[in-house]
Amino acid sequence: MILNNVDLDKISKTVEAGKNNKQSLLKPVKLQGEWILDTAKDHQFRTELSYEKGKQVIEVDSPSFLGGNGNRLGPMAYCIAGITSCFIGTFAAVAASQGIKLTKLSVNAQCDVNFAKTLDVADEPIMNGIEFDIDAQAENADRKKLEQMLNMALERCPAMYSMSHNIPVNAKIK
């Protein structure tokens, strides 16, 4: 059954597999990227990401105020797009799992990125938060029910978890 462009049968199979083997719920995300040192190129970073049915090349260029040329989306744009799509996708899936048929779902996301710390100007937080203005309408749920779905999505979204919990980072030179 597909509801809100979410295949609930596939999710159900994933849940059942996870109940039988929690390891099946661990999904690695790996990439190999390269910083482009050639100034003749019109971007600074390139990676090829694999997904179930193929691969996609992602090219990134920093905005000019950070030393790039602004020829591609910058890393923070990809970051915010990923966070936003993860969150709104979780909202759609949570609503679908509760039998809510959405008739509209759109989001405006906004955050201010403070580059003071990045540029060694001041020790200030790089981000103070992200705001989502969600336009959600459903044929079988009122505003109160949609707000419940919003809270469930905030609790279950991997991107929201990553932003609200300390995630260890290990970086080393080979």
Detailed description of the structure:
It is a single chain. With 174 residues, this protein is an alpha+beta fold. The chain has helices at 8-20, 75-97, 143-156, 158-164, and strands spanning 2-3, 6-7, 33-35, 45-51, 54-60, 102-110, 131-138. The strands form 3 sheets. Strands 3-4-5 form a 3-stranded antiparallel sheet, with no helix packed on it. Strands 1-2 form a two-stranded antiparallel sheet. The longest helix has 23 residues, at 75-97. It is globular, with a radius of gyration of 19 Å. The mean pLDDT is 97.
Strands side by side in the biggest sheet = 3-4-5
Radius of gyration: 19 Å
| Topology as a string of helices (H) and strands (E) | EEHEEEHEEHH
**Alpha plus pi helix count:** 4
- Quote the distance from N terminus to C terminus: 48 Å
The global form is: globular
Structural class: alpha+beta
SS elements, strand count: 7
Strand share of the residues?
15-25%
Mean pLDDT: 97
Keyphrases for this structure?
174 residues, alpha+beta, 3-stranded antiparallel beta sheet, two-stranded antiparallel ribbon
Short description:
The chain has 174 residues and is an alpha+beta fold.
Write the layout of secondary structure elements.
Layout: E1 2-3, E2 6-7, H1 8-20, E3 33-35, E4 45-51, E5 54-60, H2 75-97, E6 102-110, E7 131-138, H3 143-156, H4 158-164
Antiparallel strand pairs: 1-2, 3-4, 4-5, 6-7
Helix pairs in contact: 2-3
